[in-house]
């Protein structure tokens, strides 16, 4: 089946509606740049001129700076833009722009985040790599930015999805604490999950906030690091309110108290909990039956074509041609778009449409393929991750 056939809608996210079509013409670039230079957010705190991290949340179509003391904290009802600038050499910076889409963000928020990501890239003169990040399956590049990442329910005020902070004390809040291998040995993920015993897993630590007390449930297979990091999480929670804390190991009979609080009964087992983690494991290149594939998007023949030009275990930047647009499937690990400096207007305007069609075609073969990270680089501004993907 051809890559543009058999398209299906994603299960949890309509990725097609979470992006915007890009025109890619010289006029369009100028209009976006003129718009970008008028956005106050892009002019604050050395944005794009010094190495560092900047985060903004989308609020009512506006780009609003996220407080630095909340970096690494995200709400599943929101969309965010994250800029990571890093030194390439003494006189050159590299930039990665991520737009992160929460599971329950609105299409308006998601579309604004996608458009503003393009606008920020224009502000940086096309020097950035653009990444789309889905909450359930963030890329390693994104996770590596945060030694501790926290994902909570709620978000900016938007109907039933908004969770007022003062209401948190009136409901059960269950946090799952587990390792973030992308952020090194001490990397941590704190993810709010449904407050039910079915969310428990023998291998992790869980923190249950009942409003008047905080309970810690240590699964029998959790690591010492996860126990220690969960203690830090609890410490931070008790700074905001003074409540009792009780720590229980799964092996203790008293741990049944937490199972009961989460809706269990006498027939509920006390072990064998196997809830899948809320973040899908990163896809790995080189698995059996996978290979790298390089496609060319070109109108050199007078018609726009999308053709496979190379399929195998190794590729090279020598396989790229600056007159066209190329799409790299890194063995199912990520989909990269490389835009040549000499690409035509039609090629520049259609890369996103074609990349989405390709991912949807992959989804017809693998239900979870719609979660594959999607990123775009421009010729002359290739990121380290892209070079690793095509040359490794």
Automatic annotation (TrEMBL):
Gelsolin-like domain residues: 70-142, 190-238, 313-387
A GO cellular-component term linked to this record: cytoplasm
GO biological process: actin polymerization or depolymerization
InterPro entries to which the protein is assigned, alphabetical: ADF-H/Gelsolin-like_dom_sf, Gelsolin-like_dom, Gelsolin-like_dom_sf, Villin/Gelsolin
Listed GO MF terms: actin filament binding
PANTHER family: SEVERIN (PTHR11977:SF130), VILLIN (PTHR11977)
Official protein name in the record: Gelsolin
Species: Emericellopsis atlantica
């Amino acid at each position: 089946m051809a890559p543009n056939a058999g398209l299906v809608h994603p299960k949890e996210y309509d990725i097609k509606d979470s992006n915007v079509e890009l025109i890619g013409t010289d006029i369009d670039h100028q209009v976006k740049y003129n718009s970008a230079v008028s956005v106050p957010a892009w002019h604050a705190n050395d944005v794009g001129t010094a190495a560092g991290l900047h985060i903004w949340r989308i609020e009512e179509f506006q780009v609003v700076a996220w407080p630095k003391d909340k970096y690494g904290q995200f709400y599943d009802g929101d969309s965010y833009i994250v800029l990571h600038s890093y030194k390439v050499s003494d006189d050159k910076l590299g930039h990665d722009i991520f737009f992160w889409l929460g599971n329950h963000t609105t299409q308006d928020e998601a579309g604004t985040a996608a458009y503003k990501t393009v606008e920020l890239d224009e502000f940086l003169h096309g020097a950035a790599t653009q990444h789309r990040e889905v909450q359930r399956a963030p890329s390693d590049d994104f996770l590596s930015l945060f030694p501790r990442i926290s994902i909570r329910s709620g978000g900016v005020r938007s109907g039933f999805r908004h969770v007022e902070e003062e209401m948190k004390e009136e409901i059960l809040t269950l946090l799952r604490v587990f390792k973030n291998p992308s952020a090194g040995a001490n990397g941590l993920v704190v993810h709010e999950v449904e407050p039910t015993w079915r969310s428990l897993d023998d291998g992790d630590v869980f923190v249950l906030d009942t409003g008047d007390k905080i309970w810690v449930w240590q699964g029998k297979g959790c690591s010492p690091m996860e126990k220690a990091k969960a203690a830090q999480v609890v410490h931070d929670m008790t700074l905001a309110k003074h409540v009792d804390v009780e720590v229980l190991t799964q092996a203790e009979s008293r741990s049944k108290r937490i199972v009961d609080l989460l809706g269990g009964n006498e027939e509920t087992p006390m072990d064998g909990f196997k809830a899948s983690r809320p973040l899908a494991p990163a896809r790995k290149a080189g698995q059996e039956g996978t290979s790298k594939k390089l496609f060319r998007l070109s109108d050199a023949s007078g018609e726009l074509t999308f053709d496979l030009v190379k399929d195998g275990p190794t590729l090279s930047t020598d396989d790229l041609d600056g007159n066209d647009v190329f799409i790299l499937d890194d063995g199912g690990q990520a989909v990269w778009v490389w835009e040549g400096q000499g690409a035509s207007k039609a090629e520049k305007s259609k890369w996103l449409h074609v990349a989405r069609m390709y991912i949807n075609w992959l989804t017809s073969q693998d239900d979870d393929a719609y979660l594959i990270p999607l990123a775009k680089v421009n010729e002359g501004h290739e990121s380290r991750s892209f070079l690793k993907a095509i040359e490794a």
